[in-house]
Amino acid sequence: MESPMKKRRSSRSGSASGPRSGGDTDRRIKKSKKQAPAAQRGSPDGACRGLKRKSGCIEVAAQFGRKKNLDQYYSIGEELGCGKFGSVRICYSKLTGEHFACKALLKDTGEENTAHIEVEIMQHLSGHPGVVTLKEVFDDTEKFYIIMELCSGGRLSDFLVKERARFCERNAAEVVKELMGIVKYCHEMGVVHRDIKPENILLTESGRMKLADFGLATRLSDGQKLSGFFGSPAYVSPEVLTGYYNEKTDIWGVGVLLHFLLLGYLPFGGASREAIFEAVKTIELDFHGAAWQSVSLPARDLLSRMLTHDVSARLSANEVLGHPWFTTYADCSASGDSAAKCTNLQITNNIPRGAPVVLPVGRWSHDSSQESHDRDSSQESHDGAECEYINALTAAVARIEISEPKRSRICGPVPTPTGLGLKTNLCTAF
Ligand SMILES: Nc1ncnc2c1ncn2[C@@H]1O[C@H](COP(=O)(O)OP(=O)(O)OP(=O)(O)O)[C@@H](O)[C@H]1O
């Protein structure tokens, strides 16, 4: 797994533009129902303007109700992780004994308003099971302390590195389905995350995913465009590098993750940041090469629609979730035949960055113990039938009508997405 690359926090004041100010990009971005205006990152007064006034929305005037005397309420424990601007530690409520995570952000970094917006967006999204829940905020003369839900399962990136395990398509579909449900919720709430990557996806003890680190997130109203560089090089979308963008930049990030899950390596690599950017901007992925032969056609079709440079053609979160690839594996599970339909991908250790993984072409097995390349004739005929099924699905995929997302704003939690099929593995992995 690629090590996380530094974000340009100093350029967080990227702008949001109205629909009329943008040239070509405007024509590619269809307008939809009006939504809240994006936060003005340079203006604390504007930070809550237009934001849906759901219960608990933080009023900037109230400085998100931050409290003093952290020590009075919490004991701070060991470090869970370290970001560019501070560390995150486990903490214990002195009142209830509950465990939380405490993110400390230094005040003298000029990031004070960013901290406000991060907190505000977390609060805005609170209530969804896929978003790290904000508990409360403290400050003292030097730091802000964000008390949030503890995700003791660690980061998805660490899980992927540790496991180095087989990621069959069914498991990949479960991961992406759950993540996309969270992204869909964010977009419906008018929030673009802008830094979707496995380092920012945390896992609970029970293996559920939680999107975290809203430090680069922003709000976006329908038809608005964003500009400015945000994100991590390997996951950044081409439009972020070349001009204006919208919430579809998050779809690209999930697409990069899906590519990793399916093939075991990231699609855009390079020896330097510039080289990665060049790859992101110029490489058109070919889903027909040898590496893809053991990946189903619906999976390839979906990925090609997530990693297309044409933003207007790129699927929305809702459209991704409606893709037949997910139906395939939902149906498999329902029939109790899911394991048989898993294409096991062997993600071997020490894969050089950007190097292709040699996949076990045509191997279908029930579990990792059945790795034999010898398949009996009944299995062959089973595969043949499955191929027909998959090809029929692909034909259906080709007829999918692309529609703009409904930007209805959901005030409460949306239904919990299906849990990770890897739940057990995740629990034991940490
Ligand atoms: N709620 C949480 N529960 C458990 N661990 C957490 C939690 N939030 C953050 N962490 C850990 O702390 C690390 C840093 O957190 P986070 O990414 O929010 O900080 P950051 O300063 O924004 O980082 P970056 O430099 O990537 O922007 C995470 O990678 C994760 O390991």
From TrEMBL:
Keyword terms: ATP-binding, Kinase, Nucleotide-binding, Repeat, Serine/threonine-protein kinase, Transferase
Basic residues bias (residue ranges): 1-11
Coiled coil start-end: none
PROSITE patterns: PROTEIN_KINASE_ATP, PROTEIN_KINASE_DOM, PROTEIN_KINASE_ST
Gene Ontology MF, one: protein serine/threonine kinase activity
Region (Disordered): 1-48, 364-383
Pfam families per UniProt: Pkinase
Amino-acid positions noted as binding ATP in the UniProt annotation, renumbered to this chain: K103
Domain spans labelled Protein kinase: 74-326
Family, similarity comment: Belongs to the protein kinase superfamily. CAMK Ser/Thr protein kinase family. SNF1 subfamily.
Record function comment: CIPK serine-threonine protein kinases interact with CBL proteins. Binding of a CBL protein to the regulatory NAF domain of CIPK protein lead to the activation of the kinase in a calcium-dependent manner.
Name of the molecule in the record: Putative calcium-dependent protein kinase
